[in-house]
Amino acid sequence: MLAWIIPVAIVVGLLLILGLIVLIWWISTNNKFKRYAVKIDEASSGIDVALTKRYDLLSKSVEVVKGYAKHEAETIMKTTGLRAPKAEEGMKEKSAIEGRLNRAFASIQAVAENYPSLKADTVFAGLQNQVSDVEEQLQSARRIYNSNVSIFNQEIAVFPSSIVARHLHLTPRDFFEAEDRKKEDVEIKF
Fold this sequence. Notes:
There is one protein chain. The protein is an all-alpha fold. The protein contains seven helices and no strands. The mean pLDDT is about 75.
């Protein structure tokens, strides 16, 4: 009579252990998705910081350029009219802001090419170095963001973590992408 109780207890015990393993895996996977989401938000904030730094730097460069050429200074003043990125903006809005800032920065570079004395000025040379550093920081922030998005999107797509992702209604995040005009081949004319 007790002979059937022991095998049933073993089966129930194994099912409980299996259930506990599945529960631990589920919680672990859920927490992994939350960590990835935080890393993506952190990387997005890094892009905001770099864009803001670039904005501030371009705004300050107005004073340097002003003394050299009035027309070029007005171009830069338009740049300072651009708003700094906000944390709640999506990647598409940040890309648009970046595009406008890139065009303004190109105007500053054109000023430097048209006015050799401006290029030789140590203050302007220092600003160019700072802008170059900010550009590198921005590029790095974009790579970190896209790397984190890639990991997150892969985890959403692959089995078995995709089961948890579907249950949590997780969707792939957008990558930071360059503007279409920056994807084209650059034409160089001499």
